[in-house]
Design goal:
Blueprint lengths: L12 H35 L5 H30 L17
Helix pairs in contact: 1-2
């Protein structure tokens, strides 16, 4: 197995920035679906007739853990976006050349 060959890209800087912003938007959508599922989980557990306090506490701990993980991911996504703060790209931008 040899070394990978990296060829020059014809992607412009503007397109590369757009692609990164779109990827962040897709990640945000995925995180919102996860949060929604966690909310539905709580609703189902609370609606159970024979739910015990232990089950409620375990569910709460599970949801809290997931929300904390999502919060950390949100900070990373915010950091990605802040990289491009004030970034203006021309329509006639030159291609980004891969090193």
């Amino acid at each position: 197995m040899g070394m990978p060959v990296i060829t020059a890209s014809t992607t412009t800087r503007a397109q590369a920035v757009t692609d990164i912003i779109q990827s962040v938007a897709l990640e945000e959508t995925a995180l919102s679906h996860i949060l929604n599922a966690e909310g539905e989980k709580i609703q189902k557990i609370v609606a159970m007739e024979d739910v015990t306090p232990e089950v409620l506490l375990a569910t709460n701990k599970s949801v809290e853990s997931m929300v904390n993980a999502i919060s950390r991911l949100e900070m990373i996504l915010h950091s990605k976006l802040s990289t491009f703060e004030g970034c203006l790209c021309d329509d006639n931008d030159t291609p980004v050349i891969a090193p």
